[in-house]
Amino acid sequence: MNYVNYKTAIVQTHKVRLVNWPTSLKFVNPSFIGTVSDIQTLHNSLRTGECH
From what superkingdom does this record's organism come (predicted)? Predict the structure, then answer.
């Protein structure tokens, strides 16, 4: 997924967007998230459907 040009490459082109990305995390490629705790936060948010 193109995180750098997300609005253009994903939202405008494919009409798809992520809703409720955890506010404590910067919107970046998950491979650039620095801590295990932050990855767990994102994972839990996606797993529960909070972020969808």
Answer: Eukaryota
Contact 50, 19 (CB under 8 A): no
Cα–Cα–Cα angle for 13, 4, 8, rounded to 5 degrees = 20
Q: How far apart are CA 9 and CA 46, in angstroms?
A: 21
Tokens of 23: 């506010």
The b/e string for 16-42 (b: 16+ C-beta within 10 A; e otherwise) is eeeeebeeebeeeeeeebeeeeeeebb
Average pLDDT of 19-39? 95
